[in-house]
């Protein structure tokens, strides 16, 4: 169960090698979390992540999970919930893709959409049903400011995040009053392996700063969290900019 500050004792990460997810797990282990499940494709990286968190004092398990295999999600996540209640599910998987390549190769574009949106829809619904059955818990969904308005530079990725963001908000409304809390996190540019080599955007952040924002959001039972917070104002302005103006902006 969560403590008086809303922090979880047990955590399930969907996307067990995500840098943001692991930064969040480290932060929560330092506070309260004692049991962690890392769900992801079996790999040395997943094993290393589990070993690192065990070194921090948590009981850590791994479970095979692939966003692109929604037909297996219920079985994979069912194994986790069968072992006991989960206080927090953190959906952290996703791919950035390569905009130029994906425009030329529709199959690659579809893979981005299937991972970031279709796979996430499946995983969220399976996790939400399990959380609702146990009567408590939080589902934290890592979205992106890229989903606020499609940009020429990454509209394939941005559109997939826009769909996920809208879905997660609707799911949160559907679960309101059930004891299950849904929180959407919208980071800006995060300095990570995923963005290595890309030009850094203004108001760039780090996995550790996103983790801190997730913790604060859980304590406050927030429904939407922007990282950094200033992006809320920036994206509000960009969202309402006339299209002819927006397409000329260096964003």
From TrEMBL:
Its EC number is 1.1.1.333. It comes from the Bacteria. NCBIfam families: PRK07904.1 (NF005912). It holds the Pfam family adh_short. This is Decaprenylphospho-beta-D-erythro-pentofuranosid-2-ulose 2-reductase. Keywords: Oxidoreductase. SUPFAM superfamilies: NAD(P)-binding Rossmann-fold domains (SSF51735). GO terms for molecular function: oxidoreductase activity.
């Amino acid at each position: 169960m969560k403590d008086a500050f809303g922090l979880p004792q047990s955590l399930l990460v969907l996307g067990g090698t995500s840098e943001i997810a692991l930064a969040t797990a480290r932060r929560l282990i330092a506070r309260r979390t004692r049991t962690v499940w890392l769900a992801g494709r079996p790999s040395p990286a997943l094993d290393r992540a589990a070993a690192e968190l065990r070194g921090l004092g948590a009981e850590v398990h791994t479970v095979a999970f692939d966003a692109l295999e929604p037909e297996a999600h219920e079985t994979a996540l069912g194994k986790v919930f069968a072992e006991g209640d989960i206080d927090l599910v953190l959906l952290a998987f996703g791919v950035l893709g390569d905009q130029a390549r994906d425009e030329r190769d529709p199959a690659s574009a579809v893979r981005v959409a299937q991972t970031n949106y279709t796979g996430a829809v499946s995983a969220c619904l399976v996790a939400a049903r399990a959380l609702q059955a146990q009567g408590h818990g939080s589902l934290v969904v890592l979205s992106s400011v890229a989903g606020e308005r499609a940009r020429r530079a990454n509209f394939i990725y941005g559109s997939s995040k826009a769909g996920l963001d809208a879905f997660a908000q609707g799911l949160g409304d559907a679960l309101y009053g059930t004891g299950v809390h849904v929180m959407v996190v919208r980071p800006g540019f995060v300095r990570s392996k995923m963005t290595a080599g890309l030009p850094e955007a203004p108001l760039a952040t780090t996995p550790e700063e996103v983790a801190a924002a997730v913790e604060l959001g859980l304590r406050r039972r927030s429904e939407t969290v922007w990282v950094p917070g200033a992006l809320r104002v920036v994206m509000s302005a960009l969202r309402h900019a006339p299209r002819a103006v927006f397409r000329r902006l260096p964003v």
